[in-house]
Amino acid sequence: MRVLVTGTSGHLGEALARTLRDAGREVVGLDVLPGAYTSHVGSIVDRGFVARAMRGAQAVFHAATLHKPHIATHRRQDFVDVNVTGTLNLLEEAAAAGVRAFVYTSTTSVFGDALVPPAGAPAAWVTEDLAPVPKNIYGVSKAAAEDLCQLFHRNQRLACIVLRTSRFFPEEDDDRGARERYADANLKLNEYLHRRVDIEDVVEAHLLAAERAPALGFRRYIVSATTPFLPEDTAELRVDAERVVRRRVPEYAEEYARRGWRLPPRLDRVYVNERARRELGWRPRYDFRHLLERLRLGEDYRSPLARQVGAKGYHIERFADGPYPVEC
């Protein structure tokens, strides 16, 4: 089976290409940068390049994108070119080639301002039913690309699945305050409570989406680690997150104390993966409880695939204040 993967010199693209090759699939890898899993170097903005790469493909995994860290270093037009026009080119050529499944990697960032409730309100219980309110060009361009996927299913009958992934990057956080308050591993473990996912689980969700796409037609799913919280916890999470964690995952206390780690005092959102688990049959392994057990046993909390892929960074240049410049 011939599979087209975009962004194969980046985190998820490489993880997908590695996994698919190991499964015996023929992988055509696209990226603007060369890499071990990139067979075609070029831009998805070039439709001719996309058309040549698409020949014979039966499935497309579209992970290439300009990310939030590029907002401060790239023009808004660049986001439209890559995230919108590039996606359009891939959809046009996939439809023309008779591709059976198109899986688009989107982001929970499309929710934007909907993720931060007003003062005094409960934490946001984020499901696919929450209406996005993008707050920057990254969110706008990803939401537009999602709508293009829906349009191509409606009008060209292309089976398209959109996966809104939460954080899985291994790089340091872009929030200087967060970096100063928490050790990096402590910060990431905390995020598995409500807004992070391991890349191995992300890959599994993509593979299941491609398998189920012809039957599902078009769907959007949140892809994040399974939270231990329940909807009735949201008001308390906004004022005393530690008390909720003590109730839901009491075993955290011993391991956190041993490492000198802390929980966040409050949480403003919780990503909910229930629909992806129910409709895709997705069973993410790397949730907060599982990672605590790995740490207790002296193991690395990251999956083997996450360790293999490692950190990629988002820019060639280095910056004095943090891993990349920040602009909301």
Automatic annotation (TrEMBL):
Q: Which residues form the NAD-dependent epimerase/dehydratase domain?
A: 3-212
Q: What is this protein called?
A: Nucleoside-diphosphate-sugar epimerase
* UniProt source species: Vulcaniibacterium tengchongense
